[in-house]
């Protein structure tokens, strides 16, 4: 009979944030697949758990997955843990889950800390709808596309960032976020936990010497459809409004999307066959 795969959330700083269930399952499984075995060993030692560990990180995920699935098929149960927080969230996990599903293996999430969610709930920004961006791409073209998405996104945005890249990313964001509220959530669950709130200039002025783990949260674009009188118009009237101002099709579509707080592709699709 197949074993099971458990995705176990571990603390993001404060060791008290491990759950009783997580501890029990770590004791029960046959094997722990860990992003960094040395790191997880410290956690296991702290809770006096002794288990075989196998390395399972971003760079060997594809290679290790077949071997792990084989072990589960032979009846072993495996816990997947990352260095901190919830596996699969900007951390290894997704590959083994997909493979497990293909092989009819049961996947069981064991809830616990996730930096993004905890940053969001204490941010003071809208929590009803949000978009998680993880780490922004480093590739110039992909990064530009993401920044464009951020510019037009009307839901709260959550971005992970490494401390040494924080300033660079804040400078990129400065070009697009205008006066939207920004929150920097730092060192969550640790001694120096801090939430810095303000507009982008406030955050940049305070972020220079900051160390530790960071999350950037951004208020969604504030323009709500109902607050903009142009949104009372039909799409065709809206189009004509900007056309009379001498804008070309591309800029008209961009402006309408911005007014409505939607992705420009949605507007583009409407006009694709029309003008
Ligand atoms: N899987 C993890 C989770 O569930 O949140 C995220 C892992 S990702 C590789 C690491 C990033 O998460 C960091 O660069 C930082 O943006 C964020 N992060 C992790 N722990 C944090 C903490 N204690 N305080 C603030 N941000 C944290």
Description of the structure:
This protein is of the alpha/beta class and 275 residues long. The protein folds into three domains: 5-113, 3-Layer(aba) Sandwich (Cobalt-precorrin-4 Transmethylase, domain 1); 116-218, 2-Layer Sandwich (Methyltransferase, Cobalt-precorrin-4 Transmethylase, Domain 2); 229-273, no CATH class. It contains eleven helices and ten strands. The radius of gyration is 23 Å and the shape is globular. The model has no long low-confidence stretch (mean pLDDT 93). Bound molecules: S-adenosylmethionine (SAM). Residues 12-13, 82, 84-86, 89-91, 114-116, 160-162, 185-190, 213-215 line the site of S-adenosylmethionine. S-adenosylmethionine binds next to helix 5, strand 7, strand 8 and strand 10.
Write the layout of secondary structure elements.
Elements: E1 5-8, H1 20-28, E2 31-34, H2 37-46, E3 53-55, H3 61-73, E4 78-81, H4 94-102, E5 107-110, H5 115-121, E6 130-135, H6 140-152, E7 156-161, H7 166-174, E8 182-186, E9 194-198, H8 200-207, E10 214-218, H9 235-244, H10 249-260, H11 264-271
The chain binds S-adenosylmethionine (SAM).
């Amino acid at each position: 009979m197949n074993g099971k795969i458990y995705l176990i959330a571990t603390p993001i700083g404060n060791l008290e944030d491990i759950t009783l269930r997580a501890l029990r399952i770590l004791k029960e499984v046959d094997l722990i697949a860990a992003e960094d075995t040395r790191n997880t060993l410290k956690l296991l030692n702290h809770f006096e758990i002794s288990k075989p560990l196998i390395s399972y990180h971003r760079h060997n995920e594809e290679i290790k997955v077949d071997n792990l699935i084989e072990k589960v098929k032979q009846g072993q149960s495996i816990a997947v843990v990352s260095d901190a927080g919830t596996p699969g969230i900007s951390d290894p996990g997704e590959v083994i889950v997909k493979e497990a599903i293909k092989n009819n293996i049961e996947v069981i999430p064991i809830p616990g800390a996730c930096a993004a969610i905890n940053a969001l709930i204490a941010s003071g920004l809208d929590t009803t709808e949000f978009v998680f961006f993880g780490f922004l791409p480093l590739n110039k073209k992909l990064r530009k596309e993401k920044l464009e998405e951020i510019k037009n996104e009307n839901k709260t945005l959550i971005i992970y960032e490494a401390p040494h890249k924080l300033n660079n990313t804040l400078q990129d964001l400065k070009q697009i976020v205008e006066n939207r509220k920004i929150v920097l959530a730092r060192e969550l669950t640790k001694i120096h936990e801090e939430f810095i709130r303000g507009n982008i200039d406030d955050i940049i002025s305070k972020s220079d010497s900051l160390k530790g783990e960071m999350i950037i949260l951004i208020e969604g674009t504030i323009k709500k459809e109902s607050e903009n009188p142009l949104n009372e118009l039909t799409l065709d009237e809206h189009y004509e409004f900007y056309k009379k101002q001498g804008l070309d099709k591309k800029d008209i579509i961009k402006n309408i999307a911005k007014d409505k707080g939607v992705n420009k592709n949605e507007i583009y699709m409407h006009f694709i066959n029309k003008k």
